Amino acid sequence: MSETFRQRLRALPDFPADLPTFDPGSAPADPAELFRSWLDEALAAGERQPHACSFATVGPDSQPSSRMLILKDIDESGWQVASARTSRKGRELSATPCGALNFYWPSQGRQVRVVGSVAELSAEASAEDWAQRPGADGKTNPQWQVYAVIPAEIEFWQASHDRHHIRHRYGAAT
Ligand SMILES: Cc1cc2nc3c(=O)[nH]c(=O)nc-3n(C[C@H](O)[C@H](O)[C@H](O)COP(=O)(O)O)c2cc1C
Asked: Given a cut of 80, is residue 173 above it in pLDDT?
């Protein structure tokens, strides 16, 4: 009997044998500091784009949508991503300024989730981000916008082979 798709999925690899340990008790008070160290460790483990994340927005009739984006920075304004204001996500953010980021680093068995309201950075900051993009050709793009997710909640998740996965939250619990 041929293998079903369901059976193929069931047989796919799980987390790698060597997973890092994570002790929430010794985690820094600043989630951005923990994120930067996890990003460094993901890079050291060979993750190619550890700054790529899914970004979910809310559309009309509460319909969610998500797509991958690149994290641009984390500072006092929030967790920054950038896109065209005219895109679906741009239109959805204009109407409903909130979003959710999700990073996943398979080699580490780690996930980081960030949820919050979304603010727009200035036209100057957005133009600077556009100009610094790889392959920038000197042309401007007035539709380009840097958005900052202002975290209401951040969750760091560490897989464990004993299935006692560790969740470490900053901000309100859900
Ligand atoms: C790894 C990866 C990184 C991406 N980074 C960005 C980004 O930083 N900004 C962006 O506008 N689109 C980026 N994209 C494309 C988006 O996923 C998406 O297709 C596009 O922004 C249109 O989304 P929307 O129609 O939902 O607004 C990226 C795609 C991938 C796979």
From this structure: no
CA distances from 67 to 62, 94, 99, 100, 160 (A): 16, 17, 11, 11, 27
Exposed/middle/buried for residue 106 (C-beta within 10 Å: 0-12, 13-18, 19+): middle
Q: What is the CATH number of the domain that holds 126?
A: 2.30.110.10
145 lines ligand 1 (CB under 6 A): no
Range of the domain at 84: 27-171
CA–CA distance, 139 with 73 (Å, rounded to integer): 23
Bridge pairing between strands 64-70 and 52-58:
antiparallel
* CB contact at 8 A, 114 and 170: no
Written as six digits, the tokens of 39 are: 């990003």
Q: Is this prediction's pTM over 0.85?
A: yes
| pLDDT tens digit sequence for 80-125 | 999 999 999 999 999 999 999 999 999 999 999 999 999 999 999 9
Let me know if residue 165 belongs to a domain.
yes
How far is ligand 1, taken at its centre, from the CA of residue 86, in Å?
13
CA of 160 to the centre of ligand 1 (A): 31
* Contact predicate 123/139, CB 8 Å: no
- pLDDT digits 0-9 by tens, 148-169: 999 999 999 999 999 899 999 9
